[in-house]
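Appendix B, record 7
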Amino acid sequence: MKSNKTWKHDELAEDLAVAKGGIPFLNVCLGSAWLKKRGEKTPRADLLMCRPSYKRFIISIFEIKVTRSDFLSDIRSAKWREYLNHCDRFYFATLKDIVSVEDIPSEAGLVLRGEKGWYTKKPSPMTGTVIDTNTLKSIIFAKQRRSAREKRLDDIQDMRDYWRRYDFNGRLKAARVLGNKVGSLHEAAMKIGGIDEAIDVLKTQSKIRFKRGF
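Structure tokens (predicted):
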């Protein structure tokens, strides 16, 4: 049975990043645009994941596809091959029923989003690539300028980790994940000690602001 949910590209990428864990990078540049020759483009990965391990450090790149036509266009142009020089494993990531294992090139893997979450339909072989230093530098630099999307993912992972749940009490984090209004409610609840009391306080504050013309 197909899901009724309509996924957008960035939404699907974020969903996969949360499911995979590790260290995610969204829409990350693979190398320096300044070092490229005129007319050459620096590839960008929809999702790059690092496995935090000294013994088995793995960089995986996931190319997100939400339509079959987009996938077939990528296959025909061989655009996906330019990612192989920047990772240890490469995957296409899409929704169930959009592509089949037979559509996937031998050098790539396939992960699918089904009703109950993500699963690997075809494992990716190791590329055997010695990853360029500039690619690794770009990942380090990206860590220093993490986007709002990536910060939101960090917050979601904090909420998912059992040992961090009780540390998740900042308004900024709650606002990024749940929205500004719920973030304010979350902050008030943490200070007061109960959700009902927090709602009463926020209602009172709203009435005061309304009377003052804010």
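Remarks on this record: The chain has two domains: 9-144, 169-212. Residues 162-169, 208-214 have pLDDT under 50 and may be disordered.
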